[in-house]
Structures are given as C-alpha cells and as structure tokens.
Amino acid sequence: MVLKSVLREVIESQLDFLEHQELGTERLKTGFLVKAESHITVVAGIRRCGKSTMLRQIMNKKPDVPKIFINFEDARLSNFDVADFQKLLVVVNENYPHAECYFDEIQNVNEWERLIRPLHDAGKCIYITGSNASLLSSELGTRLTGRYLLSRLYPFSYSEFLHFFQTEAGNKSFEEYLFLGGFPDYLKSKNPEILHQLFNDILVRDISVRYGVKDQRLLQQLGVYMLSNAGKEFSYHSLRKTFQIGSVNTVVNYINYFENSFLLFQVPLMSWSLKKQIANPKKIYVCDNGLIKNISLSFSEDRGRLLENIVFMMLKNAGKEIYYFRETNECDFVYKDGNKFQGAIQVCFQLTTENFERESKGLLDAMEILNFSEGYILTMDETDCFVFDDKTIYVKPVWKWYLENLSGNYYF
C-alpha cells in the first residue's frame, strides 16, 4: 500500500529529476511516436537501451502540455499494488486533470492494464515502457485490445551510433559499431562493468525474481553459453544434455525467459511446413554485439559471427520476420514483412575465391525457392556484382546496404 501523499511526492520529484537530465541522442522512432496520441503508446525493450530517455524526448517535444511521469522502479513504489490503482487515479484527476501520463517500467506493477484502461477511457494521452515482452503482450491482449500501438526499442542502430558520436558512415565507424554495440551508457564510458551489471540485472530482476528461478548459477551459465554461441544452431535437447538439466521443458522455459527480456532471439528454419519448422534446430542471436564481446567466452576473434549478428539486429530493428534457410545449401537469412518474403541475405566477413562457391550456392538456393531475382552477400568492406542466368547477387558492405535499405525503417 502507498499513501496518496507519497504518490504526489513521487510524481513531483520524478518530474523535477527529469528536468535536469540530458535528452541524449534522439531515437529514430521519437518523432513518429509523438504523433501517436489516439492510442496508448507502448515502448518495449531490453533494460538500459534508452526507453526512459525516449520518453523524455517525447515529453520535450510537447513543452506546453502538462505531464506526469512515474518510474515504477522507484523504491518508494516497491509496495505499489492493485489496491493503490484507485488512489493513483484520484491523485491524477485531482492534481493533474489535463496531464499526459508517462509510466516507465510498468511491468513491475501486477495487473497494470487495470490502471491504464480507465485513464485511456477518460481521454488521457498515455505512454508506457516495459522490459518484458511476454508480460506486456499478455496484458495488452486482454483489456487493451485495439487501444495500443506497440513499438520495440533496441540499443542504438548504426544511424543512431553515428549521431551519438557525431561521425560519418564508413568502414572505420562501422568497425567500431561492430565491436562496441549500441547501449548508450556503455558507449559513454566504454566501461565493461556496465554491460556485466546489465547482464546480471536481467538474470536477477527480469528472470530469477519474476519467474521464481532458484538455480541462478545454472541460469548464468546458460546465458553466457548462449551469448557465446550467437549465430549458431541449438536444440533444447542438446542444451539439456550439456547442462544436465532434468527436463526439456525447463530448458524451453529458460530460453523463453531470455527472449522475453529481449536479451536473445530464436530464429527458426524457413519451411512451408510448421511441423518441420518446429522440429528443426533454431539459431540464436543476441540483442547487442557489445554484450557478446564483453560477456561471452572465446568470441573475440570470430568477426564473421559478429557481423552476422549485427545484420540480424538490423533486420529485427526494422520489424522483419526472420528465418534461416537450408535445402541443399544454407543461407543465413530470409525475411518477410507481413505475409510476403522480401529478401535473402548471406553474411560473409570476407569473400574469397575459396568461399565464394559455398556462399553463393546457399544464396542462390534461397533465391530459387522464394523466386527472388536479386540477393545480397553482405561483407565487411567489399563491393561486387555477379549474374547467374536470371539472378543477380550484389556484394556490399553491411553499412552501405543498411543505409540504402533499412536506415529509416524503425517505426514498430
């Protein structure tokens, strides 16, 4: 239980705190979300990726509009529960009747949708953030169906990285991005401890506490293992054997917990058969290369998989539905938007005479099956073009392909 006087104090002190914070690098989604006032705007993403900062940026673009801001990770609200909803509604209506409402890390409040629904029904403009995909999706799908716009936020894209450092696109800046990743706090200091603390916070606060996981040592070992194997195939059964876990269901739950916290993403095999898609091994990718470099084991020299991971996140950030492809040969990514497949991509750090046949065959197989006339081999710094009958393969540096195809596509 929380007193009304404490609720008022929290709102006032947090607004005062925000006024003295830097606005940071403007996120590409900010301008779009400012205009999304008719729906409840939900921003979901991993811890420390900049959700709170983006809320401040949205608030700053509305200087003449009264606002309230509540971060539900404030220690004074640790006992806030369902019984306090009505008190908060009274505080808002009495003290801030015309204010827009900004709620940060709302997943900390059980049944939070019961608070948001009456505010939206009363005509309030509402922005909320959260760090748990499963929790947000289940609650949005109950009382708030048709009332919200969901936007996912990840660490800085390459475009945002360039803006942050006030530098230009090119091989040098992209190589820095490849190894540093895009977590804003880490980029400011380049102190690895920031990423280690982030990883631990996800394990403890977002997984152990939320889901009641008691074996934190196993959770940490599994998390480090998955980060160390970004871009590789895995199966739940193999993980069960490797870590001597009693049940495959336990492994499935752990991987889902990592995915719900936006730390990892599972990529299935592209197949027209759902049964085959489920039965085949999946690939794992990580939300940020900085975490891979600083948390994983023996990954420092595997530039090819770092490049592959960054291409995955570029596609993910652009809202694509991503699969890997394998028939006779393998292609790293095929992706679609809606119901239609849009492209096929092979990632290769350096294209050579020795690996050209292998890389091109996998891509050509995917292009043939999906009826694409064009495909890409993305590299670190090479540019070329090859024609095979009616099919063209473009070889491009990842950063050039990104700027030409994806840099402005970050709305959802």
Keywords:
412 residues; alpha/beta; Rossmann fold; five-stranded parallel β-sheet; 18 helices; globular
Distance between the amino and carboxyl termini:
36 Å
Strand order of the largest sheet: 9-10-11-12-14-13
Q: What average pLDDT do the residues reach?
A: 92
Overall domain count: 2
Radius of gyration: 23 Å
- Strand percentage, roughly? 15-25%
Contiguous low-pLDDT stretches (5 residues minimum) are none
- How many β-strands, per DSSP? 14
Proportion of residues in helical segments: 40-55%
Q: Mind sketching the topology for me?
A:
Elements: H1 4-19, H2 30-34, E1 40-45, H3 51-60, E2 67-71, H4 85-95, E3 100-104, H5 113-121, E4 126-130, H6 133-140, E5 148-153, H7 158-165, H8 171-180, H9 184-189, H10 192-211, H11 216-228, E6 233-234, H12 236-242, H13 248-260, E7 264-267, H14 274-279, E8 282-286, H15 289-295, H16 303-317, E9 321-326, E10 330-337, E11 340-347, H17 353-370, E12 374-379, E13 384-388, E14 391-397, H18 398-405
Parallel strand pairs: 1-4, 1-5, 2-3, 3-4, 11-12, 12-14
Antiparallel strand pairs: 6-8, 7-8, 9-10, 10-11, 13-14
Helix pairs in contact: 4-5, 10-11, 10-15, 12-13
What can you tell me about this protein's structure?
The longest helix has 20 residues, at 192-211. This protein has a 6-stranded mixed β-sheet with strand order 9-10-11-12-14-13. Strands 2-3-4-1-5 form a 5-stranded parallel β-sheet, with helices on both faces. Strand 9 (321-326) and strand 10 form a beta hairpin. It is globular. The chain is an alpha/beta fold. The mean pLDDT is 92. Helices cover 46% and strands 19% of the residues. Helix 4 runs parallel beside helix 5 (113-121), helix 10 crosses helix 11 (216-228) and helix 12 (236-242) crosses helix 13 (248-260). It has 2 domains: 4-153, P-loop containing nucleotide triphosphate hydrolases (Rossmann fold, 3-Layer(aba) Sandwich); 158-405, no CATH class.
